């Protein structure tokens, strides 16, 4: 039997106030194509269906369209709640949907039994729980290891003290407080994990984060996004094979670092979502407007030049410094500490004239 493992859809997510609904709708359409092309019989969605517990209406609509299209193809769908989901809202109507092959668990461990030519396959649904609760729940579960067992879990899983390589997961684990050991899953043939956005295995190849289907932060620009096709045959040696099908977005995310004049020659498509770091030596008036003339979907602009870099040096002026140094010397020292570079000739001349004008004004007032 073939399963498709996806997770962390985060439908309804916004990036720097930009809605990603159209991008998510496209990716879900790509997933439906993979299901058909790969002859997948069941889809595993390992949590964080939505980006927040009360999702916007358009997010609910496109997910409804997605699972309806799959159900009409007689595809089994298994869904668990992630830490971003509302367990109660996700559970709503689950008993009715069971009859259409849509199995949902928002708050408790569930087991659904499937059958293929080789016998039964048990699909276990473990929604997001605190780590100790999840551990206690799994330890009390009666798993028949003579059968084939798959589990969906939305957890921060570690192996021998080493956690997954981060990438997009919003929950920061401090000191392993909310981590769960990979050995708790030893009875399961495949562990479909959600929560970490970077695809990777934990300990063994069949304990796997599939990652998010779309790059949801600019830190994920180097992530290859894919869906995992899990083919499970008769239980024996090498009875599970994994294929990774690349997910191609409608509009991707890119990080660009260059001078303003170099921006038009950059390689990303012009409609991409971009974070731009400008390295021009001199300040640019209305920089964001000029950048958006080239890349209209610029979501973040960073200025990195000698004016934006503070050296961090702390210089304490003494009374004698103030008495012995001219106003120009005092300002020049302050400018260099704040900007990491000295005044150039034109700047020094401008400041000199401003000081002279101010001095003449002060003399006139005294008279």
Please, how many helices?
9
CATH topology of the largest domain: the name is Purple Acid Phosphatase, chain A, domain 2
Kindly state the percentage of residues in helix.
25-40%
Instruction: Note the quaternary state here.
Output: single chain
How would the global form be characterised? elongated
Calculate Rg over CA atoms. 28 Å
Low-confidence stretches: none
Largest sheet, order of strands side by side?
6-5-4-1-15-16
Which class do the helix and strand fractions yield? alpha/beta
Relative strand content: 25-35%
Quick one: CATH superfamily of the largest domain?
A: Metallo-dependent phosphatases
Q: Structurally, how many domains make up the residues?
A: 3
Describe the protein's architecture and organization.
By secondary structure, the protein is α/β, with parallel strands linked by helices. Helix content is 28%, strand content 26%. It has three domains: 245 residues, Metallo-dependent phosphatases (Purple Acid Phosphatase, chain A, domain 2, 4-Layer Sandwich), CATH 3.60.21.10; 51 residues, no CATH class; 48 residues. It is built from nine helices and 19 strands. Strands 6-5-4-1-15-16 form a six-stranded mixed sheet. A six-stranded mixed sheet has the order 7-8-9-12-14-13, with no helix packed on it. Helix 2 links the parallel strand 4 and strand 5. Helix 1 packs parallel to helix 2.
